[in-house]
Specification:
Oligomer: single chain
GO cellular component, one term: membrane
CATH topology of the largest domain: Mac-2 Binding Protein
Largest sheet: 6 strands, mixed
Protein name: Soluble scavenger receptor cysteine-rich domain-containing protein SSC5D
Subunit structure: Interacts with LGALS1 and laminin.
Helix content: under 10%
CATH superfamily of the largest domain: SRCR-like domain
Organism: Oncorhynchus mykiss (Rainbow trout)
Number of domains: 4
Structural class: mainly beta
Pfam family, one: SRCR
């Protein structure tokens, strides 16, 4: 709207409430502690007025920590500092985020830090690792202080369904055997699982007993889940029949089944979108003519025309789902550079201990000189938005194996952490108690501006 010689009063939001994040601090582990939420560059606490188990349950689900067991009051894990950001929280228990619950509004309270709210969780004992996202990967179970794998004997869709539901990852799409997501190490925790599909936890399913098995790690079970929401792009695209998770025939999930993509107009820009969506780095090639073998069933996409910046292949221009005149001899493929950086042991895929991939294994990064500029490169590389913190001293737990980088000094503009200045691969004088970490803003934009009478800020805009 063109306006001249007027003073306009606008109520605006410079950061939407959905951009806030939640964490637990000062507890014995990442799944128990004082509740804090993030707003305008700093963390603040939650008042315990009306704080109850339903509220704790929402935090529990948001952090993928398993069921909430307690909702302690009166600064059970110590008093916080700075702002008190929420009061009179009243969750139904089904919300996806604490910030979706009813409350007195951001910053409105009549409390002191002696009333800081807390949460205690039953910590999740299952996880998925080495996959393209936190809803696909090798199945692992925590027992006796360590993570172990699950043997693929009798592993099927019903077992996978329980696993996906337990992790809040929606429906199970496929149950893999034969170490599809790589061989694990250490113990094999479960064998001969026989879930009905209705169990709440994988450990509730009949099995041969923890630690009892006749398997090797070449039989490690894996799973691909649909993702946490119906509209999520997680696991809607995959690469199959290639030499690894980052090369293969492109397949798209629609109407309950996987189908292929026709190679008409298929090019490197299209492959770029697939590689980035799967966390597989740069696209190297966009092969056509069923380079990785012919698929079966439906051909879902044809004449795909990506600009290269889309977040998902399904966001690119095409002839529409199911519209084609192709055969499977024209199935499209992608070859990606492969993921070189990941974040592990954090509350989500965008927060955790930094690990880099080199010579067939993952290793950690030393926190010497580790700073937000370095974290910024990691967050951008993983499509996780801006970095908010660059924690030191194994903030998300100590890694194992090699320490691969030390004295990292990024400018902040690099495309990958491995492009930053460092002491060189494998050169360090550190221990794992110095493992570097990152917290990103979960890939959400911080620049959204909306008009909202319940906004977090007000501005007077003078248009002359």
């Amino acid at each position: 709207v063109s306006v001249a010689n007027q003073v306009i009063i606008c109520i605006c939001t410079t950061k939407s409430r959905s951009d806030l994040t939640v964490r637990l601090v000062d507890g014995p582990n990442r799944c128990s502690g004082r509740v804090e939420v993030y707003q305008d560059g700093s963390w603040g606490t939650v008042c315990d007025d009306n704080w109850a188990l339903l509220d704790a349950q929402v935090v529990c689900r948001e952090l993928s920590c398993g069921p909430a067991t307690e909702a302690p009051h009166q600064a059970h894990f110590g008093e916080g500092s700075g702002s008190i950001l929420l009061d009179d929280v009243a969750c139904m228990g089904s919300e996806g985020s604490l910030l979706e619950c009813s409350s007195g509004g951001i910053g409105n309270h009549d409390c002191g830090h002696d009333e800081d709210a807390s949460v205690t969780y039953g910590i999740s004992r299952v996880r998925l690792v080495n996959g393209p996202n936190n809803c696909s990967g090798r199945v692992e179970v925590f027992d006796s202080g360590q993570w172990g794998t699950v043997c693929d004997d009798d592993w099927d869709q019903r077992d996978a369904q329980v696993m996906c539901r337990e992790l809040g990852c929606g429906e199970a799409l496929e149950a893999f055997g034969s170490a599809r997501f790589g061989k694990g190490s250490g113990s094999i925790s479960l064998d001969d699982l026989a879930c009905s599909g209705s169990e709440v936890s994988l450990l509730q399913c009949p099995h041969s007993g923890l630690g009892n098995h006749d398997c090797g790690h070449h039989e490690d079970a894996g799973v691909t889940c649909a993702g946490p929401t119906e509209n999520s792009s997680i696991s809607r695209v995959r690469l199959v029949n290639g030499p690894n998770n980052c090369s293969g025939r492109v397949e798209v999930f629609h109407s309950g089944q996987w189908g292929t993509v026709c190679d008409d107009d298929w090019d490197l820009l299209d492959a770029k979108v697939v590689c980035r969506a799967l966390g597989c780095g740069v696209a190297l090639e966009a092969p056509d003519q069923a380079h990785f073998g012919q698929g079966r069933g439906e051909i879902w996409l044809k004449d795909v025309q990506c600009s290269g910046n889309e977040g998902s292949l399904l966001g690119c221009s095409s002839d529409g789902l199911g519209s084609h005149n192709c055969g499977h001899s024209e199935d499209a493929a992608a070859i990606c550079e492969g993921q070189s950086v990941r974040l592990v042991d954090g509350p989500n895929r965008c927060s955790g201990r930094v690990e880099v991939y080199q010579d067939g294994s993952w290793g950690t990064v030393c926190d010497d000189n580790w700073a937000v500029l370095d974290a910024q490169v990691v967050c951008r590389e993983l499509s996780c938005g801006p970095a908010t913190e660059a924690p030191h001293q194994a903030h998300f737990g100590e890694g194992s194996g090699s320490i691969l980088l030390d004295d990292v000094a990024c400018m902040g503009s690099e495309g990958s952490l491995l492009e930053c200045s460092s002491g060189g691969i494998g050169n360090h004088d550190c221990g794992h108690d110095e493992d570097a970490s990152v917290t990103c803003m979960m890939g959400k934009s911080q620049s959204t501006i909306t008009v909202d009478k319940n906004s977090l800020c007000s501005e007077e805009l003078r248009i002359i």
